[in-house]
Design brief:
six-stranded parallel beta sheet, five-stranded parallel beta sheet, 41% helix
Amino acid sequence: MPDSSLAQNLAALRKTQSKYHHFLTAHPEPEATPLAVSVLAADDGEKILVIDGQSQDSRRAPGRAVQVWLDAELSRANGPAPGSSVWLFGLGSPLTLAELLKRIPRVTVLEPRPQVTWKALEILDLRTALEEGRLTFQTLASLRGAVPPPRPLLLAHPPSSRARRADYLRLQNFLRGQDQKTLPGSRDPRIYIISPLAGGSEPMGGYLLRAGQELGLPIAMIGWGEKTRSLAQSAQAGSDQAARSLWTQAAQRVRLALDEFKPDLIVALAQAPLTAETLAFLKKESDGLWAFWFVEDFRVFRYVEEVAPCYDLFFHLQGDLLEASLARWGLNRAWCLPPAADPVFFQPRAQVPAQYQAAVSLMGAGYPNRRQILTSLYNDYWLKSGHPAETLKIFGSGWEGLEPPLAERLFEGGRRVSPQECAWIYAGSQVNLNIHSSLTPGLNPQSAFVNPRTFELAACGALQLVDRRPLLAGLFSEEEVAVFDHPSQLPEKIEYYLARPKLRQTMGEAARARVLADHQYTHRLEFMIKRAQSPFLEEITG
């Protein structure tokens, strides 16, 4: 049963801020939620919150600690300017709000965890501040499309901002006006590409650069040399010193490049060496809009949750699957943007070196599901089919430990192949197996994304046999790409297409025509620019 303070605070909220009252009462009280929130009496008698076992204030003298912290924060900010608004992120310390209301005429609070707000309303008597209009509660959803207040001062309860960093960064971006920043409309925007360090998306920076040049835009790109890649490998192996050196060097290189080029739009690709701290530093040094094109699986590359809220625009390839996470991260300007292909780099080729020719090939890293599917396919079908064993080939790296006889089909021991070699492989294979990667056995259609290889194969006019994806039908028809739903269908479908060269050619030509019409990097860059020219979210598409 709510105590008197909670009941009276709720009554005042219902009277003065009915929308927030509805939001709060639509969420369960702390006892009914997984987040453990409790009240503890500190040594000086003050009530403090404990969240998931962690005290949110000092247990000895929390009131005095809050005063000292606020003195320091207000002094550092030279106090709130006349006419400015003061925002507090996080109610993990109800004492901080109480002290603020003693010092500041008007305070706006954003606490993304309703369970914490419930407990704070039990501790504090906020009726007078609510009824006098001195205290306002906001939610992340209420900021969408809103105009930031003039000269805001943001104070953040440290444990709250650490626990909900993405939400804190979202509020920070809003108050800085990042949600309203747009590209200049009076001239072509200057665009700077920050390329990845590694991974399948590594060549995409160059493709975007050529797309911008084709569109006649002022555009440049930063790439990474062997020294930086070596540092990244050491950091990945667990070297803290290498990680610090990597982030520092990357930040300085990007800062110098931005100072020289002065871009309006900076586009970073997945696996670019930019941490949240690096981005915070760089955004202070550049007036441009920052966009992130995340062309990876967010459930595998978890770092995206930390860095995504640092960007002004976020582009991804996982459609509705990612939408719930986008809302949780507080992203306001986010869109689904699939990969594309460079039709000059990837095109049909009449002559292909013999080592890249195959009846059936798979180009890609040795993910567990590909190992499982290909081992079964090779042992149970290909070796018994009458086709020469050596006409099935596997290209790409990450296949260490693959057992014979399939290991014998690895191209040059499983070395990494260049993009140029990929173009030859696609054009030189009669049937290209395009099995989307998964860390679990079999196919994983719920991953949703369509990989870059799908577009590159199509641009080469190659026949591909690809596992069905939720987004695939909106990108290519089954008259352009061949689709399978289960690995058991592969032998029959491989035989069908091997026996029909004219059909392979017809489908390949149709697939390339679709790329030329809809799936070039020029199309993707124009999409980014159009979204960057609008200050508000149009829609999150799937």
